[in-house]
Amino acid sequence: MQDEHYAFILVADEKYWNRLRQRQQTGKETHVFVRKNLVGPTEARKLLFYVKKQKQIRGVADFVERLTGDHEELWKKFGAESFFESFDEYQTFAEGRKKMTFIRFNNFTELANPQPKETLTSVLGSLVWFRPKYADQKITELLTAEV
Looking at the whole model, is its pTM more than 0.85? Predict the structure, then answer.
């Protein structure tokens, strides 16, 4: 695995970030982050969770696998690992898309004292319209170091 693909930064909105935090407390090991398109990491060791509203990396986890395909089949197999409370809520999120991406991960840890947004801006550039992307090991360590 190349160093520049050490981690993949996922963009999460506040609602799903809070659900992830709640799910972690239930003791479930493997979780799924759902994307509305076929974009996601193909190789990574870590996942970083960038929460849009807070403009911070708030959590880190171990990447397990990326699965793409039919939205109903993915739901049947892995929906229980997602943050959605029902198939209907998942369907609403999908907005009619038939192909989705499920990014599976475990060993989720919430950062107690994340780096301020100024640190992210200095490392990643503008956070306006920030998109998921890879980060190398050095950047990952910097972004996940607690203040």
Answer: yes
Residue 1 confidence (pLDDT):
47
Using an 8 Å Cβ cutoff, are 68 and 40 in contact?
yes
Count of domains forming the chain: 1
CATH number, position 57: 2.30.130.30
Q: What are the tens digits of pLDDT across the range 40-68? A: 899 999 999 999 999 999 999 999 999 99
Q: Domain for residue 146, yes or no?
A: no
Exposure string of 26-56, with b = 16+ CB inside 10 Å and e = fewer, is eeeebbbbbbeeeebbeebebbbbbbeeebb
Collapse the DSSP code of 6 into the 3-class scheme (helix H, G, I; strand E, B; otherwise coil) and give the result: coil
Residue 147, domain member (yes or no): no
